[in-house]
Amino acid sequence: MENINKIMPLSLLTLAMFSGTALAEKYDFAMHGYVRSGVLANQDGNRVDSVSLMPDGKWRLGNEDNTKLELIPQVTLTSDAGPVAKIQANLTHETDCTADWNCVDDDGHDIQVREAYAQLTKLDFAPDVVFWGGKRYSSSNTSSHQFDWEYIQYNGTGGGADNIDLGFAKFDVGLYAFTPSDEAKRYPHDKDEQGYPDDYSLNLWFKKLGGGPIDLQLVAHHMNQNEGNGWKQSAEKGYGITGIYHLDGFYGLSGGYSRIVAQFGRGLAAGDSLGKNGWGWANLDDTQSWRLVLDGMASLGNGWDVSTFAFYQKDSNYRWWTGDDSGWGRSMWVAGVRPMQQITKNFAMQYEVGYEYLDDDNFKGVEGSKGKGGMTKATIAPTLTFDSGFWSRPQLRLFATYAKWDRDVADAIDGNYDWGTGTLSAGAYSRSGKTSTWNFGVQGEVWF
């Protein structure tokens, strides 16, 4: 947290400069954020990592081992002529080693600046359009809180405009540049090129087509080959499409919400970058991926809310590292439900049951693991609530979790992958040879 002490004075000075400008008639400051932390221990009295089979996401109730802090300062400037400006940052600290507040990533950054952008709206020539530039999360980002996963996620530096009225739809357009830090400073494979290859994605987002319940997203990617993957003929372009159908209530059966999402990606837009940007640098030109997502929550009355989530994904010619000579087939699916019963205004019971299944043709494990099998996880969590409702926060939870997995995917649960040898070594769950665990803990979670 030392870096916050260095960043905040500079931030406050910058905000003071903005607030003093003659163009601003009104100045507003707000602070939003998110805090999550707790302890996750097993029946042996040891700390443990989250237990999950998927490369992304997990059934999060009773299954989060890290501390996460987001501070989101916002400054809003209103001009006497009408335009409104917003300046926003997102300062994030997150540990990856159980609940240790002092754990930092290998690169040594205590604080990550996830967003730093400015936007303008109510301009005289386009009063309803929001123009933005800087480092930002896309307006299209969509996640499952229950599974702790954004299945639509476009982040990075760039610029664009939101809320353009096309008549037949509202339209957002954005250009985002993003590459993981371990790939960001590699030289181009072509020695005649200058600079560093980066994933540039153009995001076209049509909302409420024809005034109806369908959203459509079109994405195009470009990234030159770098010195680490050019000899493997990695993809330099890709395209993706996402369609979302918003249903009335919970699939028309009760109150709440629900959506059906269909996604397809090819080249840079497939595999680990399906619905995302920046993670397809190892893909081949003919890597293709399909995904179907069911995401919803039913409000049943009498204090009951039930969150549900499921997805199926299939990849062809997929590879997870450029050291692999060719691609292979991979498929995965999950399904889960989290009921919450609000017993009094400030006390609730939460329950969760989830299943994950992985079939990876080229899974490299130890002890003959085949990479084909599933895991079941169940949690019960008595919860203290600030107010009533599934989304009410803060929440304080005491939980007990049971997880059981197939032996053929034991090494995928928490194995440590060696990119040099292409093998997995046993992790804290699999080293004992057991295929189940009881985990316990307490957790606080709040957003504001």
Tags for this model:
22 strands; 448 residues; mainly beta; 5% helix; 18-stranded antiparallel β-barrel
Question: How would you concisely characterize the structure shown here?
Answer:
With 448 residues, the protein is mainly β. Strand 8 and strand 9 form a beta hairpin. The two termini are 20 Å apart.
Describe the overall structure.
This protein has 448 residues and is mainly beta. The protein has one domain (124-447): Beta Barrel (Maltoporin, Chain A), CATH 2.40.170.10. The chain is built from 2 helices and 22 strands. The chain has helices at residues 2-19, 410-414, and strands at residues 24-42, 68-79, 84-94, 112-121, 130-137, 142-144, 149-152, 155-165, 170-178, 199-207, 214-222, 237-247, 255-267, 288-301, 304-318, 328-344, 347-360, 372-385, 395-405, 416-418, 423-425, 436-447. The chain has an 18-stranded antiparallel barrel. Strands 6-7 form a two-stranded antiparallel ribbon. A two-stranded antiparallel ribbon has the order 20-21. Strand 6 (142-144) and strand 7 (149-152) form a beta hairpin.
